[in-house]
Amino acid sequence: MSSYNQLEMKTPILQTKRKSAWQKELTLSKVLAGILLILATVFFIFPFYWVVSGSFKLQTVATTIPPEWFPLKPTMQNWTELFKNPVERWMFNSFIIALVEMIAICIVSSSAGYVLAKKSFPGRVIIFTMFVAAMALPKQVILVPLFTMLADFGWVNTYKGLILPAIGWPFGVFLMKQFAQTIPGELIEAAKIDGCSEIRLFTTIILPLLKPALGALAIFTFITSWNDYFSQLIMTRSTSMMTLPLGVATLRGEFTTNYGLLMAGAALASIPMIAIFLLFQKAFTQGITMGAVKG
């Protein structure tokens, strides 16, 4: 048998061995990746599980050491005690503030981002630079002059005072401007040649293309507004205007703390954020992917 024929016979065997080794390596990497993902999932889900399980424990059980990892004698006492407070009013305030802020910020940020990305006018670079600089400015720095201004307007302890200052969110404008830059200029020019007005151009062409970014911005806005404890604490004066995070914080006693009751309030406050994320998850994922590819 010639050396050529021997080499031809050995080649499929070598290829099979290489393929088998590659499959083993691929399988091992998948197993390791799966283990890491499981560990990461447990690490991030455990705090939520601990809060939910703690809401069904009595005070004596919630503070025991070693801890009771699973409530052996679950009770609804904490939830019953929680709803003796005006929780419905607190949830209504939180929903109104977060929902209106989410819608308003998405509208304002998308229009401002589109103008800064696709329109040429004097001072455009300076305005965008100011937005970027405002992102690095802590909210606590502007809180005193903002409170003074709202007090002069008579907007303290009102929905207007809680919602309107948050609409001009620099991060929202920055995010939408970066996404609007990916829209082809030829598409806009073609729409103008066909006689499309600016309003129709923005509503029928620009907004659908910005849908992934709007989904991501909606999630960021809702969660930020829902958890904005500090600003809401300064701007509210009455129990009826409190949001759910503020109301849950008032459940902490001066000398004792019912951790089961607080965990019930925290679990209730986390449900809307999880629901909003699941609702906009597809658009959020598309927005992150789009930004990674086209950024």
Taking the sheet with the most strands, its summary is: none
CATH class of the largest domain: Mainly Alpha
Question: Structural class of the secondary structure composition?
Answer: mainly alpha
* Number of domains as seen in the coordinates: 2
User: How far apart lie the N and C ends?
Assistant: 60 Å
Instruction: Compute the average pLDDT.
Output: 80
Quaternary: single chain
Q: What is the CATH superfamily of the largest domain?
A: MetI-like
Radius of gyration: 27 Å
Walk me through what this model shows:
The termini are far apart. 24% of the residues are buried. α1 (3-54) crosses α14 and α5 (124-135) crosses α8 (170-180). The protein is globular and about 70 Å long. It has 15 helices and no strands. By secondary structure, the chain is mainly alpha-helical. The protein has 2 domains: 3-54; 83-294, MetI-like (MetI-like fold, Orthogonal Bundle). It has helices at residues 3-54, 59-62, 77-82, 87-118, 124-135, 139-153, 159-163, 170-180, 185-193, 198-209, 211-226, 229-235, 244-249, 259-279, 281-294.
Give the topology, please.
Elements: H1 3-54, H2 59-62, H3 77-82, H4 87-118, H5 124-135, H6 139-153, H7 159-163, H8 170-180, H9 185-193, H10 198-209, H11 211-226, H12 229-235, H13 244-249, H14 259-279, H15 281-294
Gist of the model:
Helices cover 75% and strands 0% of the residues.
Short descriptors:
295 residues, mainly alpha, MetI-like fold, 2 domains, 15 helices, 75% helix, 0% strand, globular, disordered C terminus
